[in-house]
Design brief:
Nucleotidyltransferase, domain 5; 13 strands; four-stranded parallel sheet; single chain; alpha/beta; 2 domains
Length: 318
């Protein structure tokens, strides 16, 4: 068994187009001895339009962009790339692989090439399983720094090499081969076939998703119960009070604190306040001090008053 660690850089990614400009790979044996290592540079046949994951901040690749027009196209490089990825004796490995596999499929469509067909492991997903944290993404740079791996970000071959070193470090830490490490964490490989991509999964990840869904359902149940309570409680809203002209909205997090939210709401109604569940309609927004997010920012941008539950309690109970 050989391991093919790979990374892709694109000159631009649009809705249904990904113009690959670099395919970097590091081919090793099962002991991580390097058999081949190369940065396959590709003429993307278009300009460079680089953004970060949010689609806003421009990225800078460590290449001379003007040189790319002299390189072969993806069509001209395709035979080698297909051979590397589809070798039956090779395990393909990337970091946060889903996008890279998607880009390959888009290029196969652009150049009327056969669909890629191979299975792949993902070092990001393996790392998440090892530490038992599926709540956020872990970039290659962050993991590499933790494991003492140095590399140049966004040079495809260096990213591929760093992915290899990260995999090697995790294997050495547990004294297992990569295949055995994947087996230990009950990871099912991702797959691309007929241009359909299936992501890596695992027993732990599936359990996490089930628990997350249960937690979501419980949050929705609590919020719905609070809304029902509010509809009933507002029948006793006072006609006069210090908040007669004010409309109050509670944050979603506060709505989940049932006892506190109901107590504050009743106190607000006693002061003739109105209640809304739409943040854009409120005069007073009640949330915990640690909260953030787009909803809170939109409230602040409108100039509505933002207070903590403690501050609101002093307002309504004074």
């Amino acid at each position: 068994m050989k391991y093919l660690f790979f990374d892709i850089e694109c000159a631009g990614v649009f809705k249904n187009v990904a113009k690959i400009c670099a395919f970097g790979y590091c081919l090793t044996d099962e002991q991580f001895n390097i058999l081949a290592k190369e940065d396959i540079l590709i003429n993307p046949q278009g300009g460079f339009h680089l953004t970060d994951r949010k689609g806003t901040q421009g990225l800078v690749l460590p290449y001379k962009y003007e040189d790319f027009k002299t390189y072969p196209t993806f069509l001209q490089r395709a035979e080698k790339i297909y051979a590397l990825l589809q070798d039956s004796d090779t395990l393909v490995v990337g970091h946060a692989s889903m996008n890279d596999v998607k880009y390959l499929n888009l290029e196969s469509i652009r150049f009327s090439l056969p669909a890629f067909c191979f299975r792949f492991a993902d070092t990001q997903f393996l790392y998440m399983n090892r530490i038992g944290d599926f709540t956020r993404q872990f970039g290659l740079g962050a993991i590499a720094e933790e494991l003492g791996v140095e590399f140049t970000p966004h040079r495809a071959v260096d990213d591929a090499y760093a992915t290899m070193r990260v995999a090697e470090a995790m294997c050495k830490a547990e004294n297992l081969t990569l295949c055995k490490l994947l087996e230990k964490y009950e990871i099912t490989l991702g797959k691309t076939e007929n241009r359909e991509v299936t992501q890596n999964t695992s027993v732990s990840f599936e359990a996490y998703k089930r628990n997350r869904e249960k937690a979501k359902e419980e949050r929705e149940r609590k919020r719905a119960a609070f809304h029902v309570f509010a509809d009933k409680a507002k029948r006793n809203r006072a006609k006069e009070g210090k908040l007669k002209t004010k409309t109050v909205c509670f944050s979603h997090a506060l709505e989940l604190q049932t006892e506190l939210a109901e107590r504050l709401l009743c106190a607000a109604f006693a002061q003739a306040a109105k209640i809304t569940f739409r943040a854009e309609e409120c005069d007073i927004y009640v949330c915990f001090e640690t909260e953030s997010g787009a909803r809170l920012q939109s409230v602040k941008a409108r100039g509505a008053r933002v207070v903590t539950p403690e501050e609101f309690a002093r307002i309504v109970e004074a």
